[in-house]
Design goal:
Number of strands: 4
Helix content: 40-55%
């Protein structure tokens, strides 16, 4: 079979079995002790919804792990036991909190032996470099699984190594705006593992969720790391929120005298303390405490709030009741594109916008002059309400083409995916089918895409455009055994009309992705992708050392390290700007390690991002 799942070596399978057996023995022993009830520290906030389950962070009773996948036991050093009547007795040790996760093999985790063969220096160097704002859903999901997997420590991790790996993982989750994952990881950690930096992350998550009392309860632990200007603001906020205006105003006096005073925060805190509102339009950078202070003061967030680059803050702004409509829309679009907000929440944000009758009658004219979020919301509303298939296709087509021009095709495709899936294909104009198929491939719905593609192939007017989509269908076909026919590749070449300066990159990526997924591409086809004069490669290139490390990790079947280095090498810049060779290494490496589904998803995203 083509693209079959790669087999791991026998020794790797034996290692997995031994670790799984160890975990099973530990779980059976733990099952004899009934844990006390877990007391929640937070409740759901009715005002902050994101289209995802509410963020609720709980803490287990001291010394007790909550009901979550348990970490693998720490390795037992030789000679650590003592002989008693011919029986060697060993002291029991608490499990290392750095091994704790919430995903095991059955839940999408990468396995307890994920870091087998990987040096701790590699993990520590690259975990902080994981992409946080990548538009790639495939890369984001790989990051999330990597950070939440229950796994044994790298081979040379020291017990007192700083910062703890648990902290590095939690910081990466917060940077991604993955608040549910962060809450689950912190809930699984024992109380003793809650250091000041972890408490700071928990505090920020609670502020964004509107849990003021629970957030302020974390302040003391968070301050244990030393002086922090940000936590001074949180302390002022907590004083004001609790009605301790005297203490709050004393701290504000010190803040006002600073040359770098945060005037927007000071103004919000003053209102919380009962003073008239001052200027709040100069919000330099949104943060969780800004979000919480403006909400508590019932002040409208300025338009600059949506300029934040923090996915978690943008996600909270998307549904903030004290944010103007344009701020919520801009934040929702950015958060959805980064994967921090569900697409359904963006649909709801679009649906909440009000329009005049004149705007609703002329959505295409409005979109021609207005390139902002409100015009995109208008197109979506018009498409949902339009009953005539030809008019509906024109509106959706305009929305998708405008999105492609600004680099937002995949996000817009996800937005319109339910509409395209529900559409009766035989009622749509023939010329719309190829665009609808491409959009559904971008939205991760290959079966629905294939129905539109089949309709496009059957029509002589769109057959050429349909041929250009052949690689996307091929990448998603796990049952195709035959190698690609020369006629299929030729038709694909003929259907493509890339700009001259992009022809080589698109052609090489198209053929390279086919090869990375197991297809044999003849040398003659590669020759056709080369220009008449072969120049050196251009564009951003990852460090040669990083590419060498990625190759060695893949060849060594080191799953965790391969995923980690793949994510760092591809980065946040987008697959349209990533080094083509690294993209191909990533796809082939994931497939070699048995992540065939993930490899195909990345191949589709890379193809679409590069116009293949």
């Amino acid at each position: 079979m083509r693209n079959c799942r790669a087999d791991r070596p026998v020794f790797a399978l034996l290692g997995r079995g031994l670790l799984a057996a160890t975990l099973a023995v530990g779980s059976a022993a733990a099952a004899t002790v009934e844990p006390p009830t877990v007391e929640p520290l937070a409740v759901e906030s009715p005002e902050v919804t994101t289209g995802a389950p509410p963020v609720t962070i709980e803490r287990a009773a001291p010394g007790v792990l909550p009901d979550a996948p348990q970490p693998p036991p720490a390795a037992k050093p030789k000679g650590s036991g003592r002989a008693v009547s011919g029986v060697e007795v060993h002291d029991l040790k608490a499990p290392d909190p750095n091994t704790i996760g919430v995903l095991d093999d059955s839940q999408g985790g990468f396995g307890v032996e994920m870091w087998d063969g990987t040096a701790t220096v590699t993990v520590r160097r690259f975990l902080p470099l994981l992409p946080a704002t990548t538009p790639s859903r495939a890369l984001r999901q790989l990051s999330r699984r990597l950070l939440l997997t229950t796994a044994a420590l790298p081979r040379d991790e020291k017990p007192d190594q700083q910062p703890p790996l648990l902290q590095l993982r939690a910081e990466a989750l917060m940077a991604m705006g993955e608040l549910e994952g962060l809450a689950a990881l912190l809930k699984a950690a024992p109380t003793a593992a809650m250091t000041a930096p972890l408490s700071r992350l928990k505090l920020d998550a609670l502020l964004l969720a509107g849990e003021t009392q629970a957030a302020c309860a974390e302040l003391g632990t968070a301050q244990a790391a030393g002086a922090d200007p940000y936590l001074v603001k949180v302390q002022v906020f907590c004083h004001m929120a609790a009605g301790r205006s005297l203490e709050g105003n004393l701290a504000l006096d010190l803040m006002r005298d600073r040359k770098d005073a945060d005037h927007a925060f000071v103004a919000a805190a003053e209102v919380m303390g009962g003073l008239p509102p001052g200027r709040t339009d100069k919000l330099v950078a949104s943060s969780p405490v800004h979000f919480a202070a403006f909400k508590a003061a019932k002040l409208p967030l300025p338009a600059t709030a949506a300029e934040s680059t923090q996915p978690a803050v943008l996600r909270a702004l998307a549904t903030a009741t004290n944010a103007p409509s344009e701020v919520r829309l801009a934040a929702a679009e950015k958060a959805e594109a980064m994967g921090a907000l569900d697409t359904e929440a963006l649909r709801q944000a679009y649906a909440a916008v009000t329009f005049t009758p004149a705007e609703l009658q002329q959505p295409l004219a409005q979109a021609a002059t207005d390139k902002g979020a409100k015009a995109r919301a208008l197109l979506y509303r018009a498409a949902r309400q339009e009953a005539q298939p030809a008019a509906k296709a024109e509106i959706v087509g305009r929305a998708l083409r405008l999105a492609a021009e600004r680099g937002g095709f995949a996000a817009t495709a996800r937005l319109y995916a339910p509409l395209l899936t529900e559409w009766k294909i035989d009622t749509a104009p023939a010329g719309f089918a190829p665009l609808a198929a491409r959009a559904l491939y971008a939205a991760g719905q290959p079966e629905a895409a294939l129905r539109w593609l089949t309709a496009a192939r059957a029509n002589s007017e769109t057959a050429k455009e349909a041929a250009a989509l052949w690689p996307l269908a091929r990448f998603n076909d796990t049952n195709e055994d035959k190698p690609p026919a020369a006629a299929e590749i030729a038709a694909w070449r003929e259907g493509r009309t890339p700009p001259a300066d992009q022809a080589e990159r698109r052609g090489a990526l198209g053929l390279g992705l086919l090869a990375a997924l197991g297809d044999h591409v003849p040398a003659a086809e590669w020759l056709l992708t080369l220009p008449s004069t072969v120049a050196g490669p251009g564009g951003p290139q990852p460090r040669p050392a990083l590419k060498a490390m990625l190759r060695l990790a893949t060849e060594g079947l080191q799953l965790g390290e391969t995923v980690l280095l793949t994510l760092v090498a591809l980065g946040d810049g987008g697959l349209d700007k990533a080094d083509p060779d690294t993209i191909l290494r990533a796809v082939s490496g994931l497939r070699l390690l048995g992540l065939d589904k993930e490899a195909r998803a990345l191949a589709v995203e890379a193809a679409l991002a590069n116009g293949v």
